[in-house]
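Build the 3D complex.
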Amino acid sequence: MPTLRDNMTDLLHRPILPLGQRAPLLELAEVGKVFNGQVTALRGMSLTVHEGDFISLLGPSGCGKSTALRLIAGLSTPTQGRIRWEGGQKAGDLGVVFQEPTLMPWATVVQNVYLPFRLRGQSLASVKGEIDEALALVGLSAFAGAYPRELSGGMKMRVSIARALVTNPRLILMDEPFAALDEITRHRLNTDLLALREKIGCTVIFVTHSVFESVFLSDRIVVMAARPGRVIEEVLVTAPYPRDEAFRTSAGYAAHCKVASQALHRAMGEAA
Amino acid sequence: MTDLPQTQAGVLDPEEARRARMKRVEAVAKWALPGVVLVILLVLWDRVIVWNDIPPYLLPGPAKVLETLVKDWPMLFEAFLVTLQITLLALAVAVIGGVGLAVLFNQSRFAEMSFYPYAVILQVTPVVAIAPLIFIYVDNRTVGLLLCAWIVAFFPILSNTTLGLNSTDHNLRDLFRIYGASRWQRLRYLQLPSALPYFLGGLRIAGGLSLIGAIVAEYVAGTGGIGSGLAFRILEAGYRLNIPRMFAALLLIAVTGVVVFAGLSFLSHMLLRKWHESALKRDS
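Done.
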């Protein structure tokens, strides 16, 4: 069995190149999904994901953003079109964070983060380094032996993020991960997520229905409309990284939020 | 401006003080009240017999029952061990059968479709009606008793464990799929742990039922002598109009039930205390 960590020394340091210079990673070509032969959840979605992209899928309920994520995750097969990974998809290419922390309540933090390795048949001892590092990255080293119920909502989400990145995946999918958290915690996690991305250079597709969250986090916002779910336009957020709390109050942030809001309104208008 | 009292640790406002007092009272009352009820009942029982001059062969007083319990202890204790052994064995077989069937049903929809209706039929047919037939065809008395007790006890384990195996978090199931988990891994690392609280709930019900099954089967089997359980001792004492011994044996049966229930509750608590909602203490 090929191990996940053949060609890397640790989780760190994949440089993020500027937009336009990034190598393609994943391509969706005219991807559509029809449920039950009658409900069109997604129609004709084309998108090329590049290494280092932080892409937000932004749109109202029913715009197919979660469907798109499930298709990319391989949890569902497209009715039309195809999804192609550069160099083929390998085990451990994907990390996923759901809206709920989705932790096993009977397992400690370490055992939860160990899960992807355990399912690959790797012993805990052989991946202890990776697990410790992932926990350090999300700031939970001190809680390694805790059970999920002992943690706050934000901390549970951090464990979930640590589990998603512990295998050093080529792509991390996040399905409205912070939607259920209070705003202060959400801002904090947004900032920490960006800092983490600066460190390890991961590629992220992030589903959200918040304009502000998508502008703060991403460099590409894919705006989608509902009934049927489809892509309306793409907004580029040109503000440079690293972004911190100061970015939230900057003129550039406000300008981008305006552009994204207008795009979202057009998407809503087309659906109505 | 206003001189509000400073908040201090250890200082309770009237509401908090009342709550703390209630908590202390309740901790004592939980044990004291049932004890008081027991004493009142025993005294009443005793007085009714003394005042009405009821002879012990009609209704023995509590002291007489206790006296019989001590006097007949060697025989009753042996019977107690027999009944306890049948109960625990039946429970063990019910666990193996119930969990085994639940896993089989969970892994194969077709197996579930084929066999589940018959599991229900076995459950809803009263064991008293099946037991005489069983003792016609099964020569070994212990095996017959076990079979009866098992028929009564396995169903709650089967149905609860099935429910538990099907109650896994759907996001976790998706996650296992994304990570390419095998069927066995999904069962071992996701479904069985998810089903544990449900299984333990079923186990507690099954513990009581296997005692009922064992007692009913003994009544039906009815053979006496060495190696007889408590139910047979009750029957035998009834034939001889030894009413105090009937009460003493009944007391031991109740004790058996309590011991089984307490043991299973303790097991459940130990297995779940670290992570499950049912075992957590809340402050407010």
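Chain B has ten helices and no strands.
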